[in-house]
TrEMBL record:
SUPFAM superfamilies: RmlC-like cupins. Keywords: Isomerase, Metal-binding, Zinc. PANTHER family: FRUCTOKINASE, TRANSCRIPTIONAL REPRESSOR MPRA. It comes from the Bacteria. Residues 27-64 form the Phosphomannose isomerase type I catalytic domain. The keyword ATP-binding does not apply. One of its GO terms (molecular function) is mannose-6-phosphate isomerase activity. Coiled coil: none annotated. This is Mannose-6-phosphate isomerase. InterPro entries: Carb_Metab_Reg_Kinase/Isom (IPR051804), PMI_typeI_cat (IPR046457), RmlC-like_jellyroll (IPR014710), RmlC_Cupin_sf (IPR011051). Pfam families: PMI_typeI_cat.
Length: 280
């Protein structure tokens, strides 16, 4: 069990905390050392005080073609908090050709093509690679994604930053209206698995065994507080390792670890695809 320390990345629109990362742009070296390699997921906390650029991420195939990198970027957001009337861009508001989108960007009219939705705490947004999107100001999000840092900006609200129109338009796949949902309790996709766990009192479980980096799991505290212990012996004294946790703490759990939780909290289990549940 490892309590992970966030890596701060300041932005013109707010900041990101890379809270579980072996990616070289925000590596937690202790996490990398524990795994002995590259974890396929990257987890962030995003604080958006202003609107982010309109952007899109490539899939694995295009990441390899355009950047010679092995992973594209499919991701999801869990809304931790939202100021009143907070919005985000979630896909386009119809079906458009590449030429129509290119002209809209040139004429600074892309906003007319966007699907803008209001969001609230507890909402869940799944963003497969190829989906046009942007986080609005006033939002704090938990982001779970493939371990990739490829972003193609299509439009940046007049800010003087580089755009990536050609690659971005070629990366768009999910060209149509998307819907925000409340988190359903459990979610699985091709790359990752998320599961809410509510604890009130004590809760014991064993992380499924395995010998692969992919078998490590993460536990993030959405709210509440408590104590997390591992029964794995630590040092000559043989005492279990113990940590206090509060909201927004995150722990990496090794395959086969026996874990005991005590407190009142809502947790999010984050794991690679098809991971077994941690629920009893």
């Amino acid at each position: 069990m490892l309590k992970l320390k966030p890596v701060l990345s300041e932005k013109i629109w707010g900041y990101e905390l890379w809270i579980a990362s072996t990616h070289p742009d925000g590596e937690q070296k202790e996490f990398s050392a524990a795994l002995g390699g590259d974890y396929p997921l990257l987890v962030k906390l995003i604080q958006a005080d202003d609107t982010l650029s309109i952007q899109v991420h490539p899939d694995d195939e295009l990441a390899l073609k355009f950047e010679n990198l092995p992973r594209g970027k499919t991701e999801c957001w869990y809304v931790l908090s939202a100021k009143p009337d907070s919005k985000l861009v979630y896909g386009l508001n119809g079906k458009y050709s590449a030429k129509e989108l290119e002209n809209a960007i040139k004429e600074k009219k892309l906003e007319q093509f966007l699907n803008t939705v209001e969001v609230h705490a507890g909402d869940f947004i799944f963003i497969p690679a190829g989906t046009v999107h942007a986080i609005g100001g006033g939002l704090r999000l938990l982001e779970v994604q493939q371990s990739s840092n490829i972003t193609y900006r299509l439009y940046d609200w007049g800010r003087d930053r580089e755009l990536h129109v050609e690659k971005g338009i070629k990366s768009i796949k999910n060209n149509g209206v998307q819907k925000v949902i409340k988190f359903p309790g459990k979610f699985d996709c091709e790359y990752f698995s998320l599961e809410e766990i509510d604890i009130s009192g004590s809760y014991d479980f064993c992380v499924p065994s395995g010998k692969n980096i992919y078998d490590w799991q993460l536990v993030f505290a959405l709210s509440g507080s408590g104590i997390i212990r591992t029964f794995q012996e630590e040092g000559a004294g043989g005492k279990p390792k113990q940590e206090n946790f509060t909201a927004e703490d995150i722990f990496a759990l090794a395959p086969g670890e026996k874990i005991s939780l005590n407190g009142n909290a809502k947790l999010m289990r984050i794991a690679c695809k098809n991971a077994p549940s941690l629920k009893a």
